[in-house]
Structures are given as C-alpha cells and as structure tokens.
Amino acid sequence: MRQIKTQRLMALCLSLLPLTGFPGCQGKTPVGPAEEVKVGILFPLTGDLADKGRDSVSAVQLAIDEINASGGIRSLGGAKLKIVLGDTKGNPDQGIKETERLIQQEKCLAVIGTYQSSVTKMATQVAERLGTPFIVSISIADVITERGFRYTFRVQPKAQFYARDQVLFLKDLGKLAGHPVRRVALLHEQTDFGTATALAQKAALREQGLELVAEVSYKAEGVTSLDREVTRILTAKPDAILEVTYLKDSLLIRRALAKAGSKIPLIDTAGGTVSPEYIQTLGPLADGTLTVAEYSKYAAGGQDLNDRFRKRFGVDITGDSAHAYQAVLILKDALERAEARDKKKLRDSLAKTDLRRGPQMILPAEQLRFDARGQNEFARLYVVQIQKGELVPVWPPEYAIAKVILGK
Q1: Which CATH class is domain 37-157+299-369?
Q2: Average pLDDT, 10 consecutive residues per value, the chain (408 residues)
Q3: Do 335 and 37 meet the contact criterion of CB atoms below 8 Å apart?
Q4: Which fold has domain 160-293+382-399?
Q5: Which of 31, 124, 303, 328 has its CA 20 to 30 A from that of 363?
C-alpha cells in the first residue's frame, strides 16, 4: 500500500513540474502548439480605393496561407502567422487610429500597408513612435523613407524611380514606335501620391532635356468629370502625357481623351490603369494605355505565382498584390533570422535583409536589399501596355514581349 501511495505522489509531483522538464529525467516533455505571430494588415477596405485594398489583402492571405501550410516560422517553433486587418478607409486620420489599434490593442509584431502615401506617412510615424516594424508594400512618396525612421522598410520603388523610368521610356519612344517626344504634359491627382510623383517627374524631365508644357492637377475623391482638365492638357499640344491616377479618375481621363479624339501617348504611374476594373470597365477603349508597372505575370517566374493567385481569387496578380505578397516573404525571412518575438530584433533583422531572385524574392530584380533609409535599393519597373485586354511588357527592351502600339 505504501508503495502505491508513493507512486501516486510521484505522479502528482511530476504533473506539477514546469514543461521544461525535471533534472535527471530522460527525453523531452511535449509542448503545445507555438503561439501565433500577429501581423497587422492595413489597407483601404472601404471607400473609393477598396479595390486596391482587397487586391493587396488577397496577396497577403495567399502568402500567409502558403507559409503556414509549409511549417510556419521554424525558428519560432513552427509559429503560424495570423492576419489582423485594419481599414484606413483611405483617410490619414483613420490610418493613425488603426495603426495604434493594431499595435497597442491587437499586439501585432509588425504592420504591412497601406497603399496611399498620405496614409502611409502618418501610419509609419505612429509605428516609429511605438517601436514597431512597418513594411510598406505600396506607397510611392519619396519622403516616406527620408525622415530618418528606423522601423520603416519600403518594398516598392519610390517616386524618383518611377519618374526616372517613365522619362527614359519617353526618350526611347522615337526608336520604339517612331514617335519622338520633346514636349510633355503632367496630369495628376492632388494627394501625396500625385504631388510627390509630379515633383519627381519634373526633375527627371529637366535632367533628360525634355520640355514641360503643362501641369494640371485635380482632386480625385468624388470627381465626376475631368473633361476640362484634359482639354487644358491638349491645348498645350504635348507629344506625350504622364498621369498619376486612382481608378475612377483614370477611367474619366481615358474617356475624355477618346471624346476629344486624342491619340497622344498616355503613360500612367501604376495607378488606376493597372486595376483589373480598368480593363473590365473600358473594354477595347483601354487598349493602347501605357503605364509603369512593378510586376508582370510575363516576367521570369511570374506565371507560376499568377496561376496560384488566379486560381484562388479569379483575377491576375497586379503590382500592388505582388508587392504585398513579397512583403510577407520579407517578414518571414526576417522572423526566421530574428529567432524571437522581439520588435527590436525583428527591426534589426529586417535591416539586414538580402534576398536573391528565387522562391523568396519574386520581384523583377536580381536582389532585394534595404538601404540605410529603409528603401529597397534595387526596386525596378517595367513599362506595360494594354493590348487586347492584357498588360504586356514593352520596355525595357530586354524584358519586352511586344512592341509599343500607338494611335489607339
């Protein structure tokens, strides 16, 4: 009897020991599943830009599901990534509130977002104050990574890169399509996206010796007609138009140009014209539109990712969604190297990111690395044209799969 009681007492004592085990015991004590890693996903999910937000969230969901299905974050015991959504509603003040909620209430280890530069400027400011890594998937304004912040890392090219490649493309239009460009007009919306890009475009035009003949800006929110603005642009008789748009205004501009019978080349800044809704809404009228783009399913390795995205969501992947997908891969890589749920260690790990083209780096470059300011220094762009309802690369020549077609 005494032996039975002793055995029961020993069993009770063992059950009360911590999971780290008991000295002298053989083997390891089983542990429960690793705690999830919460990631704040902050985009406009309602309002005029909800299509952009949904596009980016879809890519985040695909990336996180693939990572979790393949074992999660192995250095954290197989911890799964968990999405915590935030809706900016396209408003900077709302972006501030949602960033604070994601970090302080939801306890997110990092945040990915936000699409609009005006919102991202404020959201990253909050993240910096709260010492939380913020991976900017899409937001173009140069200033985002030029304020000395340590916790902000941008995947997308900055406005300077967009303007550089747009203007280099214009310089090549003479030999590409027999349309030399000397006079250029700017047409852009008035948020940080439009104004920052226009500033960079003007600098690039000066550098390349092209003449700026007109600049017209407008408020995109709630706009119902841009006929007057397009007329002002056409009056200046440019050889080409550089535009910076969201979806609704991009549709209005294209229709206004068609109404005026204009055949002037129109080059967008990866704005509304890369949205699937642009082609769906305009049909054949969309053909001929040119834009810089951050991604293409026709690039090396692009078809496989596009097939997975299309199978899941029924549409092609865009530059926005590709960069959101890449942002999650960057976070996974940094978490694996940080080996801790620690924001400071994660920040330091992100700063040392150096991904080479392959399964973990799907963007059109050979390398992804952040400079001292947190900017992806190797970010690059294509110029694509809508031809028969498809966005096809036409520049630079080494990546082109079709010739530029003008006169549509």
Answers
A1: alpha beta
A2: 42 38 35 78 94 95 98 97 97 98 98 96 98 96 96 95 95 96 97 93 97 97 96 98 96 97 95 92 96 86 90 93 97 98 98 94 90 94 94 90 88
A3: yes
A4: Rossmann fold (3.40.50)
A5: 124
